[in-house]
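Risk register update: the risk of archive-format incompatibility is retired. Evidence:
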Amino acid sequence: MAKKPIPLHPHLSVAELEQRSRRCTDAKEKTRWQVIWLDAQQMEANGPSTRAVSQAMGLSQHWVDTIIRRYNAEGPRGTTISSTPAAPRGQS
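Archived output:
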């Protein structure tokens, strides 16, 4: 069964997403901006398709979906969210 597409919330224009993607210097954050920018372009051309974006970026569709959901929920601030830090060793 195909997943339901995730529409991208229009927090920023496609041009603004492109600028943020090109100007970002942090590799992980830059990847997130590129995913969002590509998804925005995909939406304009053919409708939402995180599958197409995941294939173009070489990322899992699950990770692309996560990035899009974070951006939708948090706006531009969602691109700076990294994975939860692990507990220090020896502690549980």
